[in-house]
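One-letter codes give the sequence; the fold follows as tokens. An example follows:
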Amino acid sequence: MQGNDSKGAVKKTISLHQGSGLILVIDDEEGMRKLAYETLTKSGYQVLLASNGDEALILYKLNAER
């Protein structure tokens, strides 16, 4: 979907896929983790964040039943 703002520029509106479930995001860059978190939560997912493999293993073990 497109719309015009007051300056005549065209803006595109996209719709994100809506899902459910739990996703474990592992990235050593905080900005990438934040971006993934915001995008995935807006799409309906629950998100766990880890900055390294050790953190990821702990989170996985604590949340394996989910």
